[in-house]
Write a structure and sequence with these properties.
By secondary structure, the chain is an alpha/beta fold. It contains 16 helices and 20 strands. α3 packs parallel to α5 and α4 crosses α9. The C terminus is likely disordered.
Amino acid sequence: MKNMTLENLAAACGGKLVCRGQLPCGEASAVVIDSRKAEKDSIFIAVKGERVDGHRFIPDVFAKGALGVVCEQLSEEPAGPCILVEDSLKALRQIAEFYRAQLPVKVVGITGSVGKTSTKEFIAAVLAQKYRVHKTQGNFNNEIGVPLTVLSMSEDTETAVLEMGINHFGEMRRLSRIARPDICVMTNIGQCHLEYLGSREGILKAKSEIFEYMQEDGGVVLNGDDDMLATLTRVKGRKPVVYGISGQAACGVPGKDAGSAEGFDIYAENIRMKGILGSEAVFCHRGVRFPVQIPLPGEHMVYNALAAAAVGFLLGLTEKEVADGIASTQSVSGRSRVIQAEGRILIDDCYNANPVSMEAAIDLLTQADGSSADEKMDGKAGRTVAVLGDMFELGEEEKALHERVGRYLIEKGADCIICAGTLSAAMYEGALNAAKESGRQPSGGIHYFPDRQELLAGIDALLKPGDIILVKASHSMGFEEVIKHLSLPVSHSFCSAFSR
Protein backbone atom coordinates (compact mmCIF):
# COMPACT_ATOMS: atom_id res chain seq x y z
CA MET A 1 0.00 0.00 0.00
CA LYS A 2 1.56 3.23 -1.21
CA ASN A 3 3.42 5.17 1.52
CA MET A 4 1.72 3.17 4.28
CA THR A 5 4.72 2.88 6.57
CA LEU A 6 4.43 2.74 10.35
CA GLU A 7 5.88 6.23 10.69
CA ASN A 8 3.42 7.68 8.19
CA LEU A 9 0.48 5.92 9.81
CA ALA A 10 1.45 7.17 13.26
CA ALA A 11 1.67 10.71 11.90
CA ALA A 12 -1.67 10.37 10.07
CA CYS A 13 -3.60 9.41 13.19
CA GLY A 14 -1.57 11.40 15.72
CA GLY A 15 -0.52 8.23 17.53
CA LYS A 16 2.56 7.35 19.53
CA LEU A 17 4.73 4.74 17.83
CA VAL A 18 6.06 2.22 20.34
CA CYS A 19 8.59 -0.34 19.19
CA ARG A 20 10.97 -2.43 21.23
CA GLY A 21 13.80 -3.24 18.86
CA GLN A 22 14.38 -2.25 15.25
CA LEU A 23 11.44 -0.63 13.50
CA PRO A 24 10.29 -2.41 10.29
CA CYS A 25 10.69 -0.16 7.27
CA GLY A 26 8.28 -1.74 4.80
CA GLU A 27 4.81 -0.67 3.66
CA ALA A 28 1.63 -2.26 4.92
CA SER A 29 0.06 -4.95 2.74
CA ALA A 30 -3.45 -4.37 4.15
CA VAL A 31 -5.34 -2.67 6.99
CA VAL A 32 -7.91 -4.76 8.87
CA ILE A 33 -10.04 -4.66 12.02
CA ASP A 34 -10.82 -8.39 11.91
CA SER A 35 -7.93 -10.40 13.31
CA ARG A 36 -8.95 -13.37 11.15
CA LYS A 37 -8.09 -11.33 8.06
CA ALA A 38 -4.65 -10.35 9.31
CA GLU A 39 -1.78 -11.41 7.05
CA LYS A 40 1.93 -10.88 6.70
CA ASP A 41 2.82 -7.17 6.83
CA SER A 42 -0.77 -6.11 7.52
CA ILE A 43 -1.84 -3.45 9.98
CA PHE A 44 -4.38 -4.51 12.59
CA ILE A 45 -6.54 -1.83 14.19
CA ALA A 46 -7.78 -3.09 17.55
CA VAL A 47 -11.37 -1.92 18.02
CA LYS A 48 -13.46 -2.35 21.14
CA GLY A 49 -16.83 -3.69 19.97
CA GLU A 50 -20.03 -4.38 21.87
CA ARG A 51 -19.19 -8.06 22.26
CA VAL A 52 -15.51 -8.44 21.40
CA ASP A 53 -12.46 -6.34 22.22
CA GLY A 54 -9.93 -6.49 19.40
CA HIS A 55 -7.09 -5.89 21.84
CA ARG A 56 -7.42 -9.54 22.90
CA PHE A 57 -6.19 -10.65 19.48
CA ILE A 58 -3.04 -8.53 19.22
CA PRO A 59 -0.73 -11.50 19.97
CA ASP A 60 -2.52 -13.54 17.29
CA VAL A 61 -2.00 -10.98 14.52
CA PHE A 62 1.67 -10.59 15.34
CA ALA A 63 1.96 -14.38 15.17
CA LYS A 64 0.58 -14.12 11.63
CA GLY A 65 3.32 -11.65 10.69
CA ALA A 66 1.51 -8.33 11.06
CA LEU A 67 3.65 -5.25 10.42
CA GLY A 68 2.08 -3.39 13.33
CA VAL A 69 -0.97 -2.72 15.45
CA VAL A 70 -3.02 0.41 16.16
CA CYS A 71 -4.44 0.19 19.66
CA GLU A 72 -5.80 2.15 22.62
CA GLN A 73 -3.81 0.28 25.24
CA LEU A 74 -0.47 -1.56 25.35
CA SER A 75 0.24 -4.93 26.81
CA GLU A 76 3.32 -5.19 29.01
CA GLU A 77 5.34 -6.94 26.33
CA PRO A 78 3.88 -6.29 22.86
CA ALA A 79 5.27 -8.70 20.28
CA GLY A 80 5.70 -6.00 17.66
CA PRO A 81 5.36 -2.30 16.83
CA CYS A 82 2.25 -0.57 18.17
CA ILE A 83 0.73 2.83 17.44
CA LEU A 84 -0.97 4.02 20.62
CA VAL A 85 -4.07 6.20 20.07
CA GLU A 86 -6.97 7.47 22.14
CA ASP A 87 -9.68 6.27 19.76
CA SER A 88 -9.11 3.35 17.39
CA LEU A 89 -12.14 4.07 15.22
CA LYS A 90 -11.08 7.67 14.76
CA ALA A 91 -7.61 6.41 13.85
CA LEU A 92 -9.20 4.10 11.26
CA ARG A 93 -10.85 7.09 9.60
CA GLN A 94 -7.65 9.16 9.71
CA ILE A 95 -5.56 6.36 8.21
CA ALA A 96 -8.12 5.86 5.45
CA GLU A 97 -8.06 9.60 4.72
CA PHE A 98 -4.27 9.46 4.45
CA TYR A 99 -4.36 6.47 2.08
CA ARG A 100 -7.01 8.09 -0.11
CA ALA A 101 -4.67 11.06 -0.56
CA GLN A 102 -1.88 8.77 -1.84
CA LEU A 103 -3.86 7.50 -4.82
CA PRO A 104 -4.76 9.49 -7.97
CA VAL A 105 -8.13 7.77 -8.08
CA LYS A 106 -11.42 9.38 -9.13
CA VAL A 107 -13.98 8.83 -6.38
CA VAL A 108 -17.73 8.78 -6.89
CA GLY A 109 -19.62 9.21 -3.61
CA ILE A 110 -23.27 8.12 -3.56
CA THR A 111 -25.85 9.11 -0.98
CA GLY A 112 -29.62 9.45 -0.75
CA SER A 113 -32.53 7.91 1.10
CA VAL A 114 -33.31 5.12 -1.36
CA GLY A 115 -31.44 3.37 -4.15
CA LYS A 116 -27.83 3.91 -3.07
CA THR A 117 -26.77 0.30 -3.50
CA SER A 118 -28.45 -0.27 -6.86
CA THR A 119 -27.13 3.06 -8.12
CA LYS A 120 -23.66 2.04 -6.98
CA GLU A 121 -23.95 -1.20 -8.96
CA PHE A 122 -25.09 0.65 -12.09
CA ILE A 123 -22.30 3.24 -11.81
CA ALA A 124 -19.63 0.60 -11.19
CA ALA A 125 -20.84 -1.45 -14.17
CA VAL A 126 -20.81 1.61 -16.43
CA LEU A 127 -17.35 2.81 -15.35
CA ALA A 128 -15.97 -0.73 -15.70
CA GLN A 129 -16.40 -0.33 -19.46
CA LYS A 130 -13.39 2.01 -19.42
CA TYR A 131 -11.69 1.99 -16.02
CA ARG A 132 -10.42 -0.33 -13.28
CA VAL A 133 -13.16 0.07 -10.68
CA HIS A 134 -13.27 -0.47 -6.93
CA LYS A 135 -16.69 -0.41 -5.24
CA THR A 136 -18.35 -0.77 -1.86
CA GLN A 137 -19.03 -4.39 -0.98
CA GLY A 138 -22.05 -5.51 1.02
CA ASN A 139 -23.26 -2.94 3.54
CA PHE A 140 -19.88 -1.24 4.07
CA ASN A 141 -21.33 2.27 3.78
CA ASN A 142 -20.95 3.73 7.30
CA GLU A 143 -18.14 5.17 9.44
CA ILE A 144 -16.47 1.77 9.63
CA GLY A 145 -17.38 0.47 6.19
CA VAL A 146 -16.30 3.50 4.15
CA PRO A 147 -12.75 3.68 5.56
CA LEU A 148 -12.34 -0.08 5.18
CA THR A 149 -13.54 0.18 1.57
CA VAL A 150 -11.02 2.93 0.88
CA LEU A 151 -8.24 0.96 2.54
CA SER A 152 -9.02 -2.11 0.43
CA MET A 153 -8.35 -0.23 -2.82
CA SER A 154 -5.44 -1.51 -4.87
CA GLU A 155 -2.89 0.99 -6.11
CA ASP A 156 -3.95 0.50 -9.73
CA THR A 157 -7.57 1.51 -9.04
CA GLU A 158 -8.69 4.22 -11.46
CA THR A 159 -12.21 4.92 -10.16
CA ALA A 160 -13.80 4.11 -6.81
CA VAL A 161 -17.58 3.99 -6.29
CA LEU A 162 -18.40 4.51 -2.63
CA GLU A 163 -21.83 4.16 -1.07
CA MET A 164 -22.19 6.55 1.86
CA GLY A 165 -24.99 6.02 4.39
CA ILE A 166 -25.78 7.99 7.54
CA ASN A 167 -28.46 8.47 10.19
CA HIS A 168 -27.04 11.36 12.27
CA PHE A 169 -25.81 14.87 11.59
CA GLY A 170 -22.02 15.10 11.21
CA GLU A 171 -21.53 11.55 9.93
CA MET A 172 -21.56 12.52 6.26
CA ARG A 173 -19.03 15.24 6.91
CA ARG A 174 -16.65 12.65 8.36
CA LEU A 175 -17.27 10.25 5.47
CA SER A 176 -16.72 13.00 2.90
CA ARG A 177 -13.45 13.94 4.56
CA ILE A 178 -12.26 10.37 4.02
CA ALA A 179 -13.58 9.93 0.47
CA ARG A 180 -12.81 13.41 -0.92
CA PRO A 181 -15.27 12.68 -3.75
CA ASP A 182 -14.69 13.93 -7.27
CA ILE A 183 -18.35 13.34 -8.09
CA CYS A 184 -21.22 13.43 -5.58
CA VAL A 185 -24.46 11.63 -6.48
CA MET A 186 -27.74 12.12 -4.59
CA THR A 187 -30.54 9.72 -5.49
CA ASN A 188 -33.45 11.25 -3.53
CA ILE A 189 -34.57 12.59 -0.18
CA GLY A 190 -37.18 10.32 1.42
CA GLN A 191 -38.57 9.61 4.86
CA CYS A 192 -35.90 7.58 6.59
CA HIS A 193 -33.89 8.16 9.79
CA LEU A 194 -36.51 10.70 10.82
CA GLU A 195 -35.93 9.64 14.41
CA TYR A 196 -32.53 11.35 14.31
CA LEU A 197 -32.77 13.84 11.43
CA GLY A 198 -36.27 15.12 12.15
CA SER A 199 -37.65 15.93 8.69
CA ARG A 200 -36.90 15.69 4.99
CA GLU A 201 -35.30 19.13 5.30
CA GLY A 202 -33.06 17.70 8.01
CA ILE A 203 -32.22 14.71 5.83
CA LEU A 204 -31.23 16.99 2.94
CA LYS A 205 -29.08 19.10 5.25
CA ALA A 206 -27.32 16.05 6.70
CA LYS A 207 -26.67 14.44 3.34
CA SER A 208 -25.50 17.74 1.83
CA GLU A 209 -22.48 17.51 4.14
CA ILE A 210 -21.02 15.30 1.37
CA PHE A 211 -20.21 18.49 -0.56
CA GLU A 212 -17.95 19.89 2.18
CA TYR A 213 -14.91 17.81 1.16
CA MET A 214 -15.72 17.42 -2.52
CA GLN A 215 -12.76 18.15 -4.79
CA GLU A 216 -12.54 21.76 -5.98
CA ASP A 217 -13.27 20.76 -9.59
CA GLY A 218 -15.83 18.17 -8.52
CA GLY A 219 -19.21 17.46 -10.10
CA VAL A 220 -22.64 16.92 -8.57
CA VAL A 221 -25.31 14.59 -9.99
CA LEU A 222 -28.89 15.00 -8.73
CA ASN A 223 -32.31 13.49 -9.34
CA GLY A 224 -34.26 16.41 -10.77
CA ASP A 225 -37.61 14.70 -10.16
CA ASP A 226 -37.07 14.83 -6.40
CA ASP A 227 -38.69 17.97 -5.02
CA MET A 228 -36.06 18.48 -2.33
CA LEU A 229 -33.06 17.93 -4.60
CA ALA A 230 -34.60 20.25 -7.19
CA THR A 231 -33.92 23.10 -4.74
CA LEU A 232 -30.14 22.58 -5.09
CA THR A 233 -29.63 24.75 -8.15
CA ARG A 234 -26.02 25.56 -7.22
CA VAL A 235 -23.43 23.64 -5.24
CA LYS A 236 -20.27 25.54 -4.42
CA GLY A 237 -21.19 27.99 -7.17
CA ARG A 238 -21.58 25.31 -9.86
CA LYS A 239 -24.68 23.96 -11.57
CA PRO A 240 -25.33 20.27 -10.83
CA VAL A 241 -25.91 17.67 -13.53
CA VAL A 242 -29.62 16.86 -13.29
CA TYR A 243 -31.35 13.69 -14.47
CA GLY A 244 -35.00 12.66 -14.62
CA ILE A 245 -37.81 11.07 -16.59
CA SER A 246 -39.45 13.11 -19.35
CA GLY A 247 -43.04 12.75 -20.57
CA GLN A 248 -43.73 9.92 -18.13
CA ALA A 249 -47.41 9.35 -18.95
CA ALA A 250 -46.67 9.32 -22.67
CA CYS A 251 -43.84 6.86 -22.08
CA GLY A 252 -46.11 4.21 -20.63
CA VAL A 253 -45.46 4.72 -16.94
CA PRO A 254 -48.96 4.72 -15.45
CA GLY A 255 -50.27 7.24 -12.96
CA LYS A 256 -47.85 10.05 -13.80
CA ASP A 257 -48.43 13.42 -15.46
CA ALA A 258 -46.51 14.02 -18.64
CA GLY A 259 -43.28 15.75 -17.75
CA SER A 260 -40.81 17.87 -19.64
CA ALA A 261 -37.14 17.56 -20.49
CA GLU A 262 -36.63 21.19 -19.55
CA GLY A 263 -33.92 21.49 -16.89
CA PHE A 264 -32.65 17.92 -17.30
CA ASP A 265 -29.11 17.31 -18.53
CA ILE A 266 -29.97 13.68 -19.15
CA TYR A 267 -33.41 12.14 -19.21
CA ALA A 268 -35.31 9.01 -20.19
CA GLU A 269 -38.23 8.75 -22.58
CA ASN A 270 -40.16 5.99 -24.36
CA ILE A 271 -39.93 3.80 -21.27
CA ARG A 272 -41.38 0.32 -21.58
CA MET A 273 -41.67 -1.67 -18.39
CA LYS A 274 -41.08 -5.41 -18.81
CA GLY A 275 -42.15 -6.51 -15.35
CA ILE A 276 -39.66 -8.79 -13.64
CA LEU A 277 -37.32 -8.56 -16.65
CA GLY A 278 -36.62 -4.86 -16.13
CA SER A 279 -37.30 -2.14 -18.68
CA GLU A 280 -36.07 -0.47 -21.80
CA ALA A 281 -35.90 3.22 -22.59
CA VAL A 282 -34.34 5.88 -24.74
CA PHE A 283 -31.83 8.07 -22.90
CA CYS A 284 -31.31 11.61 -24.14
CA HIS A 285 -28.09 13.53 -23.49
CA ARG A 286 -27.13 16.81 -25.14
CA GLY A 287 -29.34 16.15 -28.14
CA VAL A 288 -28.16 12.56 -28.62
CA ARG A 289 -30.68 9.75 -28.14
CA PHE A 290 -29.64 6.13 -27.59
CA PRO A 291 -31.50 2.96 -26.51
CA VAL A 292 -30.84 1.40 -23.13
CA GLN A 293 -31.76 -2.00 -21.70
CA ILE A 294 -32.17 -1.87 -17.91
CA PRO A 295 -31.99 -5.43 -16.52
CA LEU A 296 -33.21 -4.74 -12.98
CA PRO A 297 -36.99 -4.47 -12.46
CA GLY A 298 -38.89 -1.39 -11.37
CA GLU A 299 -39.33 2.20 -12.51
CA HIS A 300 -36.92 3.33 -9.79
CA MET A 301 -34.17 1.41 -11.60
CA VAL A 302 -34.58 3.76 -14.55
CA TYR A 303 -33.57 6.61 -12.23
CA ASN A 304 -30.59 4.63 -10.93
CA ALA A 305 -29.47 3.90 -14.49
CA LEU A 306 -29.82 7.59 -15.38
CA ALA A 307 -27.54 8.51 -12.48
CA ALA A 308 -24.97 6.03 -13.77
CA ALA A 309 -25.20 7.47 -17.25
CA ALA A 310 -24.65 10.99 -15.89
CA VAL A 311 -21.53 9.86 -14.02
CA GLY A 312 -20.28 8.00 -17.07
CA PHE A 313 -20.53 11.08 -19.26
CA LEU A 314 -18.75 13.20 -16.64
CA LEU A 315 -15.88 10.72 -16.78
CA GLY A 316 -15.64 10.62 -20.55
CA LEU A 317 -17.57 7.50 -21.56
CA THR A 318 -19.41 7.17 -24.86
CA GLU A 319 -23.12 6.45 -25.30
CA LYS A 320 -22.30 2.85 -26.29
CA GLU A 321 -20.11 2.34 -23.21
CA VAL A 322 -22.85 3.74 -20.97
CA ALA A 323 -25.53 1.53 -22.55
CA ASP A 324 -23.33 -1.57 -22.40
CA GLY A 325 -22.51 -0.93 -18.75
CA ILE A 326 -26.14 -0.46 -17.75
CA ALA A 327 -27.15 -3.64 -19.57
CA SER A 328 -24.45 -5.61 -17.72
CA THR A 329 -25.56 -4.55 -14.21
CA GLN A 330 -26.44 -7.37 -11.85
CA SER A 331 -28.69 -7.25 -8.80
CA VAL A 332 -27.40 -7.57 -5.24
CA SER A 333 -28.86 -9.93 -2.66
CA GLY A 334 -31.63 -8.18 -0.74
CA ARG A 335 -31.95 -5.36 -3.29
CA SER A 336 -34.78 -6.14 -5.73
CA ARG A 337 -33.10 -9.45 -6.61
CA VAL A 338 -35.38 -11.78 -8.56
CA ILE A 339 -35.20 -15.44 -7.55
CA GLN A 340 -36.97 -18.11 -9.57
CA ALA A 341 -37.54 -20.71 -6.88
CA GLU A 342 -39.36 -23.95 -7.65
CA GLY A 343 -43.03 -23.12 -8.06
CA ARG A 344 -42.78 -19.41 -7.25
CA ILE A 345 -40.98 -16.17 -8.08
CA LEU A 346 -39.42 -14.17 -5.24
CA ILE A 347 -38.48 -10.49 -5.21
CA ASP A 348 -35.79 -10.34 -2.54
CA ASP A 349 -35.79 -6.74 -1.29
CA CYS A 350 -35.27 -7.54 2.38
CA TYR A 351 -32.04 -5.64 3.03
CA ASN A 352 -33.77 -2.50 4.28
CA ALA A 353 -36.98 -0.50 4.11
CA ASN A 354 -38.49 2.95 4.48
CA PRO A 355 -41.78 4.35 3.17
CA VAL A 356 -40.35 5.48 -0.17
CA SER A 357 -38.60 2.20 -0.93
CA MET A 358 -41.65 0.24 0.27
CA GLU A 359 -43.88 2.01 -2.23
CA ALA A 360 -41.34 1.52 -5.03
CA ALA A 361 -41.16 -2.19 -4.21
CA ILE A 362 -44.96 -2.46 -4.17
CA ASP A 363 -45.04 -0.76 -7.58
CA LEU A 364 -42.58 -3.35 -8.83
CA LEU A 365 -44.62 -6.23 -7.41
CA THR A 366 -47.93 -5.08 -8.81
CA GLN A 367 -46.39 -4.49 -12.24
CA ALA A 368 -44.63 -7.86 -12.19
CA ASP A 369 -47.50 -9.85 -13.66
CA GLY A 370 -47.29 -7.93 -16.91
CA SER A 371 -44.54 -10.15 -18.36
CA SER A 372 -45.61 -12.05 -21.44
CA ALA A 373 -44.97 -15.71 -22.18
CA ASP A 374 -42.41 -14.91 -24.85
CA GLU A 375 -40.42 -13.09 -22.15
CA LYS A 376 -39.78 -16.46 -20.51
CA MET A 377 -42.21 -15.92 -17.69
CA ASP A 378 -45.97 -16.45 -17.50
CA GLY A 379 -46.36 -13.81 -14.80
CA LYS A 380 -50.12 -13.44 -15.29
CA ALA A 381 -50.68 -16.97 -13.97
CA GLY A 382 -49.46 -16.00 -10.51
CA ARG A 383 -50.84 -13.80 -7.75
CA THR A 384 -48.91 -10.82 -6.43
CA VAL A 385 -48.12 -11.42 -2.75
CA ALA A 386 -46.58 -8.76 -0.46
CA VAL A 387 -44.75 -10.07 2.62
CA LEU A 388 -43.80 -6.90 4.49
CA GLY A 389 -42.29 -6.19 7.89
CA ASP A 390 -41.45 -3.28 10.18
CA MET A 391 -39.69 -0.11 9.06
CA PHE A 392 -37.47 1.39 11.76
CA GLU A 393 -36.09 4.85 12.63
CA LEU A 394 -39.22 6.71 11.49
CA GLY A 395 -39.72 8.74 14.66
CA GLU A 396 -43.09 10.04 15.80
CA GLU A 397 -44.73 9.36 12.43
CA GLU A 398 -43.92 5.65 12.40
CA LYS A 399 -47.51 4.47 12.94
CA ALA A 400 -48.95 6.77 10.28
CA LEU A 401 -46.24 5.83 7.79
CA HIS A 402 -46.85 2.10 8.29
CA GLU A 403 -50.59 2.68 7.86
CA ARG A 404 -49.90 4.57 4.64
CA VAL A 405 -48.00 1.59 3.23
CA GLY A 406 -50.95 -0.65 4.08
CA ARG A 407 -53.30 1.65 2.21
CA TYR A 408 -50.90 1.78 -0.73
CA LEU A 409 -51.03 -2.01 -1.02
CA ILE A 410 -54.78 -1.81 -1.55
CA GLU A 411 -54.50 1.12 -3.93
CA LYS A 412 -52.01 -0.77 -6.11
CA GLY A 413 -54.04 -3.99 -6.07
CA ALA A 414 -51.79 -6.57 -4.38
CA ASP A 415 -53.56 -9.96 -4.46
CA CYS A 416 -52.40 -11.13 -1.02
CA ILE A 417 -51.06 -9.01 1.83
CA ILE A 418 -49.01 -10.48 4.69
CA CYS A 419 -47.69 -8.15 7.41
CA ALA A 420 -45.35 -9.17 10.22
CA GLY A 421 -43.88 -7.30 13.19
CA THR A 422 -45.00 -5.01 15.99
CA LEU A 423 -45.00 -1.81 13.91
CA SER A 424 -46.60 -3.59 10.97
CA ALA A 425 -49.82 -3.96 12.92
CA ALA A 426 -50.51 -0.40 11.71
CA MET A 427 -49.74 -1.49 8.13
CA TYR A 428 -52.22 -4.34 8.53
CA GLU A 429 -54.88 -1.99 9.91
CA GLY A 430 -54.25 0.48 7.10
CA ALA A 431 -54.79 -2.25 4.52
CA LEU A 432 -57.96 -3.50 6.23
CA ASN A 433 -59.44 -0.02 6.45
CA ALA A 434 -58.55 0.87 2.87
CA ALA A 435 -60.03 -2.38 1.59
CA LYS A 436 -63.27 -1.76 3.48
CA GLU A 437 -63.54 1.85 2.34
CA SER A 438 -62.80 1.10 -1.31
CA GLY A 439 -64.51 -2.25 -1.59
CA ARG A 440 -61.29 -3.75 -2.97
CA GLN A 441 -60.76 -6.97 -1.07
CA PRO A 442 -57.54 -8.80 -2.07
CA SER A 443 -58.39 -12.27 -3.39
CA GLY A 444 -55.74 -13.82 -1.14
CA GLY A 445 -56.77 -11.84 1.95
CA ILE A 446 -54.98 -9.56 4.41
CA HIS A 447 -53.00 -11.35 7.12
CA TYR A 448 -50.95 -10.39 10.18
CA PHE A 449 -48.26 -12.16 12.24
CA PRO A 450 -46.72 -10.55 15.36
CA ASP A 451 -43.14 -11.59 14.55
CA ARG A 452 -40.89 -13.36 12.04
CA GLN A 453 -41.07 -16.75 13.73
CA GLU A 454 -44.86 -16.90 13.58
CA LEU A 455 -44.70 -15.68 9.99
CA LEU A 456 -42.38 -18.56 9.07
CA ALA A 457 -44.70 -21.02 10.80
CA GLY A 458 -47.83 -19.81 9.02
CA ILE A 459 -46.87 -18.43 5.63
CA ASP A 460 -46.92 -21.66 3.61
CA ALA A 461 -50.67 -22.10 4.16
CA LEU A 462 -51.30 -18.70 2.54
CA LEU A 463 -49.32 -19.25 -0.66
CA LYS A 464 -50.09 -20.90 -3.99
CA PRO A 465 -47.82 -22.27 -6.71
CA GLY A 466 -46.98 -19.60 -9.27
CA ASP A 467 -47.16 -16.72 -6.78
CA ILE A 468 -44.92 -13.69 -7.30
CA ILE A 469 -43.81 -12.78 -3.78
CA LEU A 470 -42.21 -9.53 -2.57
CA VAL A 471 -40.28 -9.82 0.72
CA LYS A 472 -39.26 -6.52 2.31
CA ALA A 473 -38.57 -5.07 5.78
CA SER A 474 -35.90 -3.19 7.68
CA HIS A 475 -32.67 -5.17 7.92
CA SER A 476 -32.89 -5.98 11.62
CA MET A 477 -36.19 -7.82 11.03
CA GLY A 478 -34.05 -10.65 9.62
CA PHE A 479 -36.29 -11.29 6.61
CA GLU A 480 -33.44 -13.02 4.80
CA GLU A 481 -34.71 -16.03 6.78
CA VAL A 482 -38.05 -15.60 5.03
CA ILE A 483 -36.29 -15.59 1.65
CA LYS A 484 -34.38 -18.73 2.63
CA HIS A 485 -37.61 -20.45 3.71
CA LEU A 486 -39.49 -19.49 0.56
CA SER A 487 -36.58 -20.58 -1.66
CA LEU A 488 -37.00 -24.19 -0.56
CA PRO A 489 -38.64 -26.52 -3.10
CA VAL A 490 -42.43 -26.49 -2.94
CA SER A 491 -43.50 -29.91 -1.67
CA HIS A 492 -45.80 -32.17 -3.69
CA SER A 493 -48.39 -32.08 -0.93
CA PHE A 494 -48.26 -28.29 -0.89
CA CYS A 495 -48.83 -28.15 -4.65
CA SER A 496 -51.61 -30.72 -4.50
CA ALA A 497 -53.43 -28.85 -1.75
CA PHE A 498 -53.80 -25.80 -3.97
CA SER A 499 -54.44 -27.65 -7.23
CA ARG A 500 -57.73 -29.13 -6.07
